[in-house]
Amino acid sequence: MEGDCLSCMKYLMFLFNFFIFLGGACLLGVGIWVIVDPTGFREIVAANPLLFTGAYIMLAMGAMLFLLGFLGCCGAIRENKCLLLFFFMFILLIFLAELSAAILAFIFRENLTREFFTKELKKHYLRNNDTDVFSSTWNSVMITFACCGVNGPEDFEAVPPLPHSPLESTTPEACCQRELQSREGVFVNREACLTGIERFQNRQGCYTVILNSFETYVYLAGALAIGVLAIELFAMIFAMCLFRGIQ
């Protein structure tokens, strides 16, 4: 009976990790294709910082899942205690990292308020200074999401205009409407926007726009995170049971 139970656990673990292996291989393949694709998709991704970052996150996640599935499959089917131990340690490290990230996110959740972002924007924003990481990131966010500041253009009233931009009064160039929402997108009317004509500006604050964009995914992401943690916990239990059962 014990041998049958061990054999059943072995094949269940192999099947479980085979799907992880396939999922990792798919993510890895898509990530590589997005980055090296010569047909023009690469340029679209490179022009959008969020897509560009997402492509590399997808690549890293794919590689991690690919390796994880491979270790689990080989360790289970060959009943290799060394591979099973590596698999267990790898899963444990990922589990602890995710748990730490969740705890830190809960502790520092007050730093994600509208007031915090508004204060940081007014303090550190340097308009079109692309050598400044903070300003460049904010400009990319405002261009990508067609928004302006945290609450709206009024956030920039305390930010002095650049000396070489006589047209720019309070509204930065990144808040001007474009025909295509990317850095390469043509302005609808740059001069009118910078001189304060509202219909050529993105008036909605980024905090509201981004919150609305991701609101529908919050509960899904939370459920997915709990599901992933549960799967990792069961994977560690299976690996240890199989490890202890192998003679």
From TrEMBL:
Keywords: Glycoprotein, Membrane, Transmembrane, Transmembrane helix. The chain crosses the membrane at residues 12-36, 56-77, 84-108, 217-243. Signal peptide: none annotated. It is found in: Membrane. InterPro entries: Tetraspanin/Peripherin, Tetraspanin_animals, Tetraspanin_CS, Tetraspanin_EC2_sf. It is a multi-pass membrane protein. The keyword Transmembrane helix applies. The keyword Plastid does not apply. Its main location: membrane. It holds the Pfam family Tetraspanin. One of its GO terms (cellular component) is plasma membrane. Belongs to the tetraspanin (TM4SF) family. This is Tetraspanin. It comes from Thinocorus orbignyianus. The lineage of its organism: Eukaryota, Metazoa, Chordata, Craniata, Vertebrata. The gene is Tspan18.
